[in-house]
Amino acid sequence: MIGEARLGLLGLGMRAGKVVVGTNGVRAALQRGEIALVIVAEDCSRRTEEKVVRLARAINVPTVTGPAARALGHRLGRPPVQAVGVRDAQLVAGLTDRGAPADARRT
Q1: Of the candidates 81, 75, 107, 63, the residue with the CA atom closest to the CA atom of residue 6
Q2: Number of domains, the chain
Q3: Which of 14, 30, 69, 93 is the Cys-Cys partner for 80 at CB 3.0 to 4.6 Å?
Q4: Contact between 99 and 73 (Cβ < 8 Å)
Q5: Is residue 13 included in any domain, yes or no?
Q6: What is the rounded distance in angstroms from the CA atom of residue 81 to the CA atom of residue 69?
Q7: What gap in Å lies between CA 34 and CA 79, rounded to an integer?
Q8: Is 101 contained in some domain?
Q9: Per the domain annotation, does 86 fall within a domain?
């Protein structure tokens, strides 16, 4: 799980255009090969699991669990968010340990 301290980096990444927010946006960016890491809310819906997590796993994009959708959205100044895609490898390294997900989500 990504810790609260590291989540502050997501807001910076969003302002820099390095983050995609929302299930549909993350799925589309995954299909275009633009995503280096997917963060899903710990309480994400089955739809998000099927559309985002399954696709990320199929194309070998790491997926980690974040906080609840409400907390994740709050950190980004948005309503509840179930999925966030990170485009930038340096941002991924800052969010995870040495660029490798601390706890890859297994589904």
Answers
A1: 75
A2: 1
A3: 69
A4: no
A5: yes
A6: 5
A7: 24
A8: no
A9: yes
The answer to the question of residue 30 being in a domain is yes
pLDDT digit string (tens) for 13-58? Answer: 989 999 999 999 999 999 999 999 999 999 999 999 999 999 999 9
Instruction: Specify the residue for token string 């997900």.
Output: 101
Provide DSSP, 36-103: SEEEE-TT--HHHIIIIIHHHHHTT--EEE-S-HHHHHHHTTSS--SEEEE--HHHHHHHSBTTB-SS
Write out the residue range of the structural domain in which residue 46 sits: 4-95
Token pair listed for 70: 């409400």
- pTM exceeds 0.90 for this model: no
Contacts of 75 (CB under 8 A, 6+ apart): 7, 8, 10, 11, 67
85: nearest Cα among 11, 31, 34: 34
Diameter over CA atoms, the chain: 31
Alpha-carbon dihedral angle through residues 56, 34, 96, 13, given to the nearest 10 degrees: -130
